[in-house]
Amino acid sequence: MKTENENTNMKTNSDMADSPQYEKAAMKKFTLRSVICLAVGGIAGYLFAFGSTHLKTLFTAFTKYSQVYFPVLQIYFFPWLLLVFTLICTMINNKLLKKSKLQIASWDGENDDHINIADTCLNKVLLISNIESVGTQMIFAVITYHLMKNLQDKSNTNVMMIFIAVAIYIASMAAIILQQKLVIQLMKKYSPEKRGSIYDKHFQDVWFATCDEGERHIIYKSCYKTFQFMNKVFSVCLVAATIIGMFVSIGILCAIIIGFLWLIMTCCYTRECIRLENKR
Predict the structure, then answer these.
(1) Residue-wise burial string across 20-47, b where 16 or more C-beta atoms lie within 10 A, e elsewhere
(2) H-only helix segments in 144-212
(3) How far apart are CA 234 and CA 220, in angstroms?
(4) 110, 75 in Cβ contact below 8 A?
(5) How far, in Å, CA of 256 to CA of 254, rounded?
(6) Are 238 and 262 in contact (CB under 8 A)?
(7) What span, in angstroms and rounded, lies between the C-alpha atoms of 126 and 186?
(8) Where are the beta strands (DSSP E) in 32-99?
(9) What spatial distance separates the first Cα and last Cα of the chain, rounded to whole Å?
(10) pTM score, whole prediction
(11) pLDDT tens by residue, 216-248
């Protein structure tokens, strides 16, 4: 019922979009937004330029202190931060997995309330495991930023901390894979039509092939919403990198990487749309 209502609303909105009144109203709103953005950008640029000396002094001092203290944090703090982060995510996921197991075990095969609760818990496990995966790799990247310099250091403590960080990283990634494997196994208990192994590099394609029409509609809609959201994120990040680059010597690599990722996402989306259109 909800899908039918959404389709009706989309059809009504598309019919309204064909009218000349809608075109004029949209143009007025676009012009107003553009003027406001230009005004805000101009004012912000003036204020930044007016206080550029103070901002440069502040960023210079911050950079100076970070060069002194941040390498110490990389070696002696971030490995333990990685361990704590891994343990917290693992404990939360274990609790959700136990709850989902209980709900599946008490399912009588007819009442779907237990399965809905279990499905929600398992989706939360996937969300947390994805956050853990990205967070783990980000923290590990920070730890290994000066990897070669630390390995060449004569301090045995630095080398030992690097090996500890590597061990924690491997354990964290193994825990993520195990959690996702348990999620797949539990989902197969109440959806036996599902296929695929987490160890297969084509797992996502195999799993998607066994999804029904409703599940595929959710995936399609989620992907499109993500594409729209990430367009805004890349735009904001690129503007932020440009502004920060005026006051800090971060180089052009930051802006190039953001723009390159944005370009890849846009090209992949457009290419797939063209491919699917040609298959119709």
Answers:
(1) eeeeeeeeeeeeeeeeeeeeeeeeeeee
(2) 147-152, 156-190, 203-209
(3) 21
(4) no
(5) 5
(6) yes
(7) 12
(8) none
(9) 27
(10) 0.73
(11) 899 899 999 999 999 999 999 988 888 777 766
